[in-house]
Specification:
heterodimer; A: alpha/beta; three-stranded antiparallel β-sheet; P-loop_NTPase (chain B); ATP binding (chain B); ABC_transporter-like_CS (chain B)
Chain lengths: 267, 235
């Protein structure tokens, strides 16, 4: 019989965010992609970012992945091995940190995978960057990560180009989690998949989050995806955060005029 | 005994931008709930009973007032009206439950896994969580051959049984109930009342809205009757 005493009391957060971006602005020519955006990601949560095309949500995610540096603003990751503003890191240092501590899944698998290398090789590449050289360890860890992503192991040596879209996303997920990242970034991970495959990929992600406590940030223009996945959500428009809150709060009691429009426009 | 929840002058209104005006829901409500106490919210349709529950759960953001919630093990108290969203998210996983009349489940997840989810989230091993889930599916009268099926395809009544099993599988300290007996058959209603009585005996505080308060009359300790935009009369 399950009783209340079997569980720990919650440790309330007034705790440190795991990742924090503050005052981030970025301009591409005449386009202001991000305007003074701040975001906090807390350990173990799923943060959703919604907004229409061009609202800056993917740019923000690329900043979190340290792929892009802003014109102004800071990023910190609350880990023993990181300190200070991560946007100030050299490209090499940022790449190493990204390889070891941040996983990303792109909407387009071509951005995240070498389509003609084997799937297991794609996952192993991530481990190689982090310094693993022993072949049997690479193979075993790649297998574990693919298995955790619910990828059929009989196909682990097939190149992604020969796989379906859903399977390609699973290879990306395996690559992203191979090193147990502190945070997993998901950029429209199920956009373009048919609905039944979408449900299965979301289920895999939810299971990873639940079983491993992986912190996730998920960007999507699909409000249904955000509603099923996220604990909290940020709503972006024209490079600014217009509203943030608990996911049910933002969907059921939106405060900002734009969020009300967005939520009420959903079919 | 110290109150689990102390609601102090809580006020809620909705600002509808495209109409350009504000719709008030309730104003300056104050009441408290002790551990193990069952509070019934009553009043005519549209008076704000569900809105009050959702405001306590922070699905709705209050305009003003406080909702003091006493944390376990001497950790003090926290104002649910103002606490950080992430704290509310954590409390919902562990402490505060909300039982609605509608099931929201991810597609392509079996009924037993939908029910087991809160236990899995809390770290219970898969087999144990599934066994417990089957126990509650059985108790609420969900047919055995549906346990491995996807509940989104079930009838309204069966979905509600799955919903109750999931919502009540894990004991919480405060449970908010929004018409959970709607669309239930007599067996499931009996199972629900028995489960609520168990939880109450275990010290769980409950605040509920019921279409047919007769269903839970043996459990109710106090009633708060909401009246249109006035202070509630506490019986």
């Amino acid at each position: 019989m399950i009783t209340a005493q079997m569980f720990d009391a919650p440790r309330l957060v007034t705790q440190q965010p795991l990742m924090e971006l503050s005052g981030v602005s970025k301009r591409y020519g005449s386009v202001e992609a991000l305007r003074d955006v701040s975001a906090r990601v807390y350990p173990g949560e799923v943060l959703g970012i919604v907004g229409e095309s061009g609202s800056g949500k993917s740019t923000l995610l690329r900043m979190m992945n340290l792929e892009e540096t802003p014109d102004i603003g800071d990023c910190s990751l609350n880990l023993p091995e990181t300190k200070g503003n991560l946007f100030a890191l050299s490209r090499y240092a940022a790449r190493m940190l990204r390889a070891k501590k941040i996983g990303i899944v792109y909407q387009n698998p071509h951005l995240g995978l070498l389509m003609h290398n084997s799937s297991s090789g794609n996952v192993a590449e991530r481990l190689l960057i982090a310094g693993e050289r022993r072949f049997y360890v690479l193979r075993e860890k790649a297998r574990d990560a693919l298995n955790a992503s619910e990828f059929p192991l009989s196909r682990m040596d097939a190149p992604p180009i020969e796989l379906s879209g859903g399977m390609q996303q699973r290879v990306q997920i395996a690559k992203a989690i191979a090193l147990e990242p502190a945070v997993l970034l998901l950029d429209e991970p199920t956009t373009g998949l048919d609905v039944s495959v979408q449900a299965l990929v979301l289920d895999t992600l939810k299971r990873l989050q639940r079983d491993r406590g992986i912190t996730m940030v998920i960007v999507s223009h699909d409000l249904g995806v955000i509603r099923t996945m996220a604990d909290r959500v940020m709503v972006m428009r024209r490079g600014k955060v217009v509203e943030e809150g608990l996911v049910d709060q933002v969907f059921q009691d939106p405060q900002h005029a734009y969020t009300q429009q967005l939520v009420h426009a959903k079919l | 005994m110290e109150n689990l929840l102390t609601v102090d002058r809580l006020t809620k209104a909705f600002e509808i931008h495209h109409l350009g005006h504000i719709i008030p829901a309730f104003a300056t409500l104050s009441f408290s709930v002790a551990p193990g106490e069952f509070l019934l919210l009553s009043g005519p349709n549209g008076v704000g009973k569900s809105t009050l529950l959702r405001t306590l759960y922070r699905t709705y953001r209050p305009v003003s007032g406080h909702v003091w919630y006493t944390l376990p093990r001497g950790q003090g108290r926290i104002d649910l009206a103002r606490a950080a969203d992430i704290d509310i998210a954590l409390l919902r996983r562990r402490e505060i439950g909300f039982v609605t009349q509608f099931l929201t489940a991810r597609p392509r997840v079996s009924a037993e896994d939908v029910v087991a989810e809160p236990l899995l989230q809390a770290g219970t091993p898969l087999q144990e969580a599934r066994e417990e889930a089957r126990h509650w599916l059985e108790t609420f009268g969900v047919k055995r051959d549906l346990w491995a099926a996807y509940p989104m395809t079930f009838s309204g009544g069966e979905q509600q049984k799955v919903n109750l099993a999931r919502a009540l599988i894990r004991p919480q300290r405060l449970v908010l109930l929004d018409e959970p007996t709607a669309s239930l058959d007599a067996q499931a209603r009996g199972a629900l009342v028995a489960r609520l009585a168990d939880l109450k005996a275990g010290g769980v505080a409950m605040i509920g809205v019921f279409h047919h308060p007769g269903d839970v009359e043996t459990l109710v300790d106090r009633e708060i009757r909401l009246q249109p935009m006035e202070m509630a009369n506490v019986a």
